[in-house]
Design goal:
Length: 440
Amino acid sequence: MSQETVRVRFAPSPTGFLHIGNARTALYNWLFARHEGGTFVLRIEDTDRVRSTQEAIDKIFDAMKWLGLDWDEGPYFQSERLEIYRTYGQKLVGSGAAYESTDEEKGTAIKFRMEGAATSVEDLLHGRINFDSSLIEDFVILKSDGFPTYNFACAVDDHLMKITHVIRGDDHISNTPKQLALFGAFGAEPPKYVHLPMIHKEGGGKESKREGAQFVGTYREAGFLSDALVNFLALLGWYPGEDVEILSRQEMIDRFRLDGLGKTPSQFNLAKLEWMNGAYIRAMSPEDLATRLVPFLREAGIEVDESRRDWLLQVVTLYQERLKNLSEFVEKARFFFTDDFEFDPAAVEKVLKKDSALAVLKESRAAIEALDELTPECLEADLRGVAERLSVGFKKVAQPLRVALTGGTASAGLFETMVLLGKETITRRVDRVIEKLDQL
């Protein structure tokens, strides 16, 4: 890059929560500023008085902080800069670049005089983009209520905030000729533009802001890690220079170049995000992972006994390799924390209602009760002995026990699970199932 001090901005409109596409735009601005030693400005474009909400503003801040996208300046609120826009509007009227226009219903507004047949912008990603300005009519820059329109406020702020690069979605390309014309009327040099291709949803088509699953907060609630989501979003349209997929934030900052951005739309791939999130989960320490999991357990109504922290760490370690997201832990490991878990109807039908299940559970319960110590090795030897005495395959012993203890046919290692449940819980749950089977 040149010797100019890079200044970029992320300027969301608080008419909805932070969308995945907007989050990627924020990330690319942040990475570029950090790579260049520049300034990342946060500007809230809240001049839509009907649709802008405080809740949306709060959610944007929360999402930015969760993603770790810290800003150097701001947040600036356009609703607090109305006098600045009025002053610039009057300046343009004074220079003849704009004029007052009165409508019987809407009152007196200020319109910008759109002149010139053609204009162009040298987009740093797409190259030269030409516009036929003769097709653009004069447009309102200040409404009768004193509030600016989007293009006017955007151009004024980019000018006054000395923004050097505007990195935004290519849905804003159509706004560029109006903003360039405004910069010309200000007698100012416009910023350099980078218009990012859209993110397409799986199966094709542009992502919609109205698709709730695409809001950042939804991924957070589903148990995705912010580092994993940032890593995933960074590669959703940027090539870091070699075939690497797991990158730390510092590695992303060190590698980020605008010429590494792709020119074609990228496609959101949930399976890829889940894989990447799983990789981040596996790289965590059990202590850190347990701390992250506790809120999900409590949200599900499961209280965690902090005095049993070592036991919790063992349960977490048992499932760490199996998790794609944090919320899965509650579903997979609920039976460790409470007897109040659901039995899989298919497992009950396929395993517990078999003729041999009742005898297997009774024999297994007696064998486990007689053990002085529960270890994986002792349990395996004990239960294999049960299989021999009953002349059945070991699976015929293991599966009824697994269903009785966990509610399903899939869990972590049976013997490790039983050790962590403890003899008292094992016998209580087996007794519960035996009682029900005796009644059939």
